[in-house]
Design goal:
Elements: E1 2-6, H1 11-23, E2 28-30, H2 41-53, E3 59-64, H3 68-74, E4 82-84, H4 88-96, E5 102-106, H5 112-124, H6 131-143, E6 157-159, H7 163-173, H8 179-197, E7 203-209, E8 214-220, E9 225-231, H9 235-244, E10 249-250, E11 252-257, E12 264-270, E13 279-283, E14 286-287, H10 291-302, E15 308-311, E16 314-315, H11 317-326, E17 331-334, E18 336-337, E19 340-341, E20 347-348, H12 354-359
Parallel strand pairs: 1-2, 1-3, 3-5, 4-5, 6-17, 9-10, 9-11, 9-13, 13-15, 14-16, 15-17, 16-18
Antiparallel strand pairs: 7-8, 11-12, 19-20
Helix pairs in contact: 2-3, 4-5, 7-8, 8-9
């Protein structure tokens, strides 16, 4: 079903489009405006964008005088890709390249016959994934508050710059921070990062009764999430995330880096039986060469896991590039991207060996 909305300047074209949709037997839901009396376009943009965002309608059409205002307002909603199209070519590219889920038209500029052609193309064109999905992933990264970090905009890392996270990492870097403090800081940073990493967990509605009245509320839906630390340093991040989701299941992947070849070697892998039905958050505090993380992602995929996120506290550009090259479908989340790696493949300036500092070993 299509959601459709307009302001006073788009009212005439909207009525023409409604008649056209009815002739084509295309179901729609009209969110207004219902007259050409002067009104404020953001209200109708929000109604249509919310309906698409919540999957109440598959796609939407918005119309104002120029289309510009509706585009700006609709694109403020997370997950909305509203495209202003003035001709057939733009309509085709809006779907092929950008997978636009809201079409915006200019009521005072676009003739109705052109509008009909634009709508037909947009409804029937197919989205081309591949490199375009990578680019749309970058848009989602901006939407999540991430920055274009590292040496290449294709690095695909969400970098959290929250003041609390940065403050705590500064203390972690200090070589004089003892094991107890370091362990507590890793837990705290993991909790803060986990709040954002789990933002896309699915919800479902249930009914509860408050002390005042019955109401509909949202709760986490189904088999949601699992945490898989890469042994051993990843263990330090688990408790922080369990603070947020205490019912999550835990798996473990044991890898170590051969100090001569610098290649990952597997020695242990045990996952929840239903890992393939869950969002799996792979935990590794230090993303250095990326070899271990990439190998661990490969192990998860071999066991049928499709929804994977990698969460690291500090990353090197080389590690981000490695993981993104091998697994472009996996989002990388980190708190800092440091300068580079040294000859021993340690992150510079980094914070040393996270495992040793967590467990008091050398």
């Amino acid at each position: 079903m299509l959601a459709i909305g307009c302001d006073h300047a788009g009212f005439t074209l909207k009525n023409e489009i409604l008649s056209y949709l009815e002739k084509k037997n295309i179901p729609y839901r009209d969110f207004g405006a219902y007259s050409d009396d002067s009104c404020h376009f953001p209200f109708y943009a929000s109604l249509v964008a919310s309906a698409v965002q919540k999957n109440e309608c598959e796609r939407g059409i918005l119309i104002c005088g120029t289309g510009i205002g509706m585009s700006i307002a609709a694109n403020k909603f997370k997950g909305i890709r509203a495209a202003l199209c003035m001709d057939e070519y733009q309509a085709r590219m809006a779907k092929r390249h950008n997978n636009a889920n809201i079409l915006v038209l200019a009521g005072r500029i676009t003739p109705k016959d052109t509008a009909f052609e634009i709508i037909d193309i947009w409804l029937n064109e197919n989205y081309l994934e591949g490199k375009y999905e990578t680019r749309n992933g970058l848009i989602r990264r901006i939407e999540e508050g991430g920055s274009m970090s590292g040496t290449n905009y294709m690095d695909m890392a969400f970098v959290f710059d929250h003041p609390l996270i940065q403050h705590k990492i500064s203390i972690m870097r200090d070589k004089n921070t003892n094991t107890k403090e370091f362990r507590e800081l890793v837990k705290e940073v993991s909790t803060l990062m986990g709040y954002e990493v789990t933002r896309e967990l699915p919800l479902e509605e249930i009914e509860v009764e408050t002390p005042i009245a019955k109401t509909t509320v949202k709760v986490l839906s189904g088999k949601n999430v699992g945490f898989v630390p890469i042994l051993r340093a990843g263990l330090g991040m688990v408790d922080g995330l369990l603070t947020l989701i205490p019912t999550a299941k835990i798996g473990h992947i044991g890898l170590y880096r051969d100090h001569e070849t610098l290649q990952p070697v597997e020695y242990y892998c045990k996952l929840p039986e239903d890992a393939h039905d869950r969002m799996i958050i792979l935990l590794d505090p230090m993303l250095a060469t990326g070899g271990s993380a990439s190998a661990a992602i490969g192990f998860l995929k071999q066991r049928g896991v499709k929804n994977i996120k990698l969460m690291s506290i500090i990353a090197a550009p080389q590690g981000i590039q490695k993981v993104h090259k091998d697994h472009p479908d996996v989002n990388i989340y980190c708190a800092c991207v440091d300068q580079t790696l040294n000859d021993n493949a340690y992150i510079v300036p980094g914070l040393g060996d996270a495992g040793d500092r967590l467990f008091g070993t050398k």
